[in-house]
Amino acid sequence: MNVRRRHISGIAVTAAAALGLGTLSACSGDSAAAGNTDKFDVVASFYPMAFLAERIGGDHVNVSSLTQPGQEPHDLELSTKQRAQLEETDAALFLTGLQPAVDEAIGQSGVKTKIDAATLTALEEHGAEAGGHDHEGEAAHEEEHAGEEHAGEEHAGEEHTEEEHGHDHSHEAGGKDPHIWLDPVKYAEVAEGVGKAFEKADPDHAADYKKNTEALVKQLGDLNTKFETGLKDTDTKVFITTHSAFGYLAERYGLTEEAISGLSPEAEPSAARVKELEKMAKADGVSTIFYETLVSDKTAKTVAQDSNLKTDVLDPLEGITDKSRGDDYFQVMEANLKALRTALGAK
Questions:
Q1: What's the predicted TM-score (pTM) here?
Q2: Burial of 253 (0-12, 13-18, 19+ CB in 10 A)
Q3: Which of 6, 9, 119, 277 is the most interior residue, by most CB within 10 Å?
């Protein structure tokens, strides 16, 4: 659909000609490059953004993803080919704070429609613990976490906590947690904003974008109801993960996520943090440590073995691979719900 052609550097043109601008998204079956089709061309930063574009755009869009299936998105570096691709697309859909290289490239690009999901819902600050549950363990433990019924309200001493847990927020946008797609309610808010942006950028198909957005928002509402019902009555409200990706989900459903590391999936926990988690697991009746599909499970299994706990997968849905418990966002989220119900002792 892209009828405008912007000036691209000679290096970018040469790279594009040599390598081709192939579609990278697992969502899109169209092998044509974004920007070179008769459809509304969208470059998405990673899977959750590509999924929204596919579902909202339907037959009217050609979606490509900057993050390939199985690639850990946080540390993505863009190739010259991908930067050239951004100059040829009709729209870029991304999430500020998750992928610094993408934020920079899109900011510097000449793409007309830039849709930042982080501006379509409220982002909050989450550390290694997030959620709305008061611990049932030792008084000292309760006192340590007092006032955290709503993560993000109090941040006094946050620098100490991050240092203690071995996590650096410097790669996140202002310390905000970007994992909004794991909360179906926030993801629906983003979907509504993306739908409106598509309607404005491609008015010829606005009616279809609106209809598709409404259908997606309804499906996300149904998913939210499943989580609310499924996690309402459980033996414990605490779960442990390797990566602090589930803060929004925890807050939404009255749970507490305790992460071995912080928002960075590659951060190594300190010995003090591991010891703290072992005590907390015993006090709160935690049975399982969750790990994810795109990052090594070594840390989770080591901590679990030392604490005599089980391990299982809780997928942060940053990409779909053959190891994923489902073929799309909704299937994997329902698998996550099943895993949480088992670990938390749901009735």
A1: 0.78
A2: buried
A3: 277
Mind listing the pLDDT tens digit for each residue in 278-328?
888 888 999 999 988 777 777 788 778 877 889 999 999 999 999 999 999
Q: Phi and psi for 72 in degrees, rounded to 5?
A: -70, 120
Quote the tokens at residue 252: 């939404």
**Residues 259/260/266/269 CA torsion (nearest 10 deg):** 140
Closest CA to 309 of 278, 339, 338: 278
Task: Give the range among 36-45, 59-68, 199-208, 217-226 with minimum mean pLDDT.
Answer: 36-45
100 in Cβ contact with 78 (< 8 Å):
no
What backbone phi and psi angles, to 5 degrees, belong to 278? -60, -45
Q: Length of the chain in residues, anyone?
A: 347
Could you tell me which of 309, 142, 167 has the C-alpha nearest to residue 247?
167
At 263, is the secondary structure helix, strand, or coil?
coil
Radius of gyration, alpha carbons of the chain? 21
> What is d(CA 173, CA 143) in angstroms, rounded to the nearest whole number?
29
pLDDT exceeds cutoff 70 at 239? yes
Q: Strands 256-259 and 129-131, how do they pair?
A: antiparallel
Angle at 185 between CA 147 and CA 314, to 5 degrees: 75
Which residues, in sequence order, are bridge partners of residue 38? none
Measured between alpha carbons, how far is residue 309 from residues 31, 232, 245, 300, 343 in Å? 45, 23, 21, 10, 10
- Do 339 and 312 meet the contact criterion of CB atoms below 8 Å apart? yes
3-state class of 290 per DSSP? strand
Residue 165: other Cβ atoms inside 10 A: 23
Query: For 110-152, how does the pLDDT look when each residue is reduced to its tens digit (9 = 90+)?
Result: 999 999 999 999 999 987 777 754 444 433 333 344 334 333 3
**Type of residue numbered 264:** S
Q: Look at 43-47, 163-167, 193-197 and tell me which has the smallest mean pLDDT.
A: 163-167
SS3 (DSSP) at 189: helix
DSSP 8-state secondary structure symbol assigned to residue 97 = T
